[in-house]
Design a protein that fits this description.
By secondary structure, this protein is α/β, with parallel strands linked by helices. It contains 15 helices and 14 strands.
C-alpha cells in the first residue's frame, strides 16, 4: 500500500464545480515541432479556426455562488489571469465574475430570464435547478453556442461536455476526475481483521452479498460489555437508496421519459436490500432520533463505522485512515453505473445571451493554460487521499460511472415518505411503492406545467 504526500486543501471550493482543479492546455510547440508541420495541414487548420469577433468592449459576466475569479495564489492561477487578460484584448471584452449568495442565485436567474435579459452570460447551476429552466426554454443547448472547431467538440482538453439532461447536452466545465464511492475505515478494518475492500473488488467478489457479509463481521461488541461498539455501515437513507439503486441499474425518477421509478423492480429490489440492512441484519449505526434523517450523513465520522457512502468533499476532516471502492453492483447492475449524482452542477448559458458563440469561444480560450498534473484533478485528489490506490480507484473505476439524478427537481417527490414507511414502519416494499406511485406521478406532472 503506497502512501502519497498530500497537498494543502486549497482547492476544496472546486468540488462544487462540475469538475475540480486544473484546466487543460495545448503546450506551445517547439521550433522543431513547428518545422515538421505539413503546410497544407497548417493552412487547413487556420482556415477552419474562426477569426476573433470584436465584441465592442462588452462585459461578459460569469456567475456562481462563490468567487470564480482566480485568486492568483498559485502558478496556474497566475497563468489563468494572464490568459484572461490576453483573451479580453483579443476579443475586445472584459470578464466580470459575479458572486451571488446561494439563496438569491436562482430567484435572480428566474427573474432576469423572464425578461429575456439574463443577469449573467455564463453561470454555474445545479442540474436540479437547470432542469426546470430547460423545460421553460431558458437555457441553450451546447449545440447552439459551439461550432465544429470549438475545443469542446474536438480535443476537449479545455472544456468538456457534462452528462446530458434528457438526452441533450446543456452543461460544460473543466476536465476533471471524481465521483462518489463507498468508503471504508482502514484503521477499523485492520483492527477487526477484515479483508481490504480493494482486494475484494479486484477479486471480482464485490457485490451486495459480500457487502452484507463484511458489514455483519464489522458489527461487534469488541469489549464484551453487552453493547455493539463497531458497526458495519451508516449513512443517510435517501442517499443510500439513490446510490445503491444506481448500482442496481435503477433510477428513482427518469427525466427523459417523465416516469417515476419507485415501482421499478430494480428500485424495489434496492429498497428491500436497505430494509434488510436496517431491520434484518441490523448492521446500521443510527445516531439520531430520526432513523432515516439527514443527520446520519455524518455518523461515520465517529470512527466506529466500517463502511460509509461519502462524496469526496466530505472527507477532509477525518481522523482515521480511509479507502474507497465503487458501490457494489446489485443483481441487476453493471460496472458502467456505480453511483447516483443528484448534486451535479456545471456551467450553463442562458437564452438571450447576445453573440453566444463568440462569448463561449472567448470563455473557452481562458482555460488554455498549462496542465499541472498527470490527469485532471490530480492535485485536488492528492489533497484528500493519502494512498495512491484510492486515487487510482477513483480515476479508473468510479470516474464517469455516475447516474445523473434529478429527483429533487420535482416538487415534493415522495422519496422520504417511501423510505419511512419501509424502514421505520416496516411496511411492504411493493405495497409502499404502489401507495406512493400516484404522488410521484403528480410531482412529475407538476414540474412540467
Amino acid at each position: 500500500m503506497r502512501k502519497i504526500k498530500g497537498y494543502s486543501i486549497l482547492l476544496l471550493c472546486f468540488v462544487f464545480l462540475l469538475t475540480a482543479c486544473s484546466g487543460g492546455n495545448n503546450a506551445a510547440k517547439t521550433p522543431e515541432a513547428s518545422a515538421t508541420t505539413e503546410p497544407a495541414a497548417t493552412e487547413e487548420a487556420a482556415a477552419a479556426t474562426p477569426a476573433p469577433v470584436d465584441l465592442g468592449g462588452r462585459v461578459i459576466k460569469v456567475a456562481a455562488w462563490w468567487d470564480l475569479k482566480p485568486a492568483g495564489n498559485s502558478a496556474s492561477e497566475k497563468e489563468r489571469l494572464a490568459k484572461i487578460a490576453e483573451v479580453e484584448k483579443k476579443y475586445n471584452v472584459k470578464f466580470e465574475f459575479v458572486n451571488v449568495p446561494f439563496e438569491e442565485f436562482m430567484p435572480k436567474f428566474t427573474a432576469t430570464a423572464l425578461t429575456g435579459e439574463p443577469f449573467a452570460d455564463i453561470l454555474i447551476m445545479e442540474f436540479t435547478s437547470a432542469w426546470p429552466a430547460i423545460l421553460k426554454g431558458q437555457l441553450l443547448p451546447i449545440s447552439e453556442f459551439t461550432t465544429a472547431t470549438s475545443n469542446i467538440n474536438n480535443e476537449a482538453n479545455l472544456m468538456v461536455k457534462a452528462p446530458p439532461i434528457a438526452g441533450e447536452y446543456y452543461s460544460f466545465g473543466e476536465p476533471g476526475t471524481g465521483g462518489t464511492g463507498l468508503h471504508y475505515n482502514r484503521d477499523l478494518f485492520k483492527k477487526l481483521g477484515l479483508p481490504d475492500l480493494q482486494e475484494v473488488y479486484a477479486s471480482g467478489q464485490w457485490n451486495w452479498e459480500k457487502f452484507v457479509e463484511i458489514a455483519k463481521q464489522a458489527t461487534k461488541d469488541t469489549d464484551n460489555d453487552g453493547k455493539v461498539d463497531t458497526y458495519g455501515f451508516s449513512g443517510w437513507a435517501i442517499d443510500i437508496l439513490r446510490n445503491f439503486s444506481a448500482a442496481n441499474g435503477g433510477k428513482i425518477v427518469d427525466e427523459a421519459t417523465s416516469t417515476q421509478g419507485l415501482t421499478d423492480p430494480k428500485v424495489i429490489e434496492t429498497a428491500e436490500f436497505l430494509n434488510r440492512l436496517y431491520n434484518v441484519e441490523n448492521v446500521m449505526k443510527i445516531k439520531g432520533a430520526d432513523k432515516i434523517g439527514y443527520d446520519e450523513f455524518n455518523t461515520f465520522k465517529d470512527g466506529d463505522v466500517a463502511m460509509f457512502p461519502a462524496p469526496i468533499w466530505n472527507l477532509g476532516d477525518l481522523t482515521f485512515e480511509f479507502g474507497v471502492v465503487p458501490f457494489p453492483n446489485g443483481p441487476q447492475g453493471s460496472p458502467e453505473l456505480t453511483f447516483a449524482d443528484p448534486g451535479r452542477n456545471g456551467f450553463f448559458m442562458p437564452k438571450g445571451v447576445k453573440d453566444a458563440q463568440a462569448v463561449y469561444q472567448a470563455f473557452e480560450e481562458t482555460y488554455d493554460i498549462t496542465q499541472t498534473g498527470d490527469f485532471p484533478s490530480q492535485e485536488w485528489l492528492e489533497s484528500i487521499y493519502t494512498h495512491e490506490e484510492d486515487i487510482a480507484m477513483i480515476r479508473d473505476h468510479i470516474n464517469n460511472t455516475g447516474q445523473i439524478l434529478l429527483e429533487t427537481a420535482y416538487p415534493e417527490f415522495p422519496t422520504y415518505g417511501f423510505l419511512k414507511d419501509i424502514i421505520v414502519d416496516n411496511q411492504s416494499v411493493t405495497a409502499t411503492a404502489e401507495k406512493y406511485k400516484p404522488e410521484a406521478e403528480a410531482s412529475i406532472a407538476k414540474l412540467g406545467k
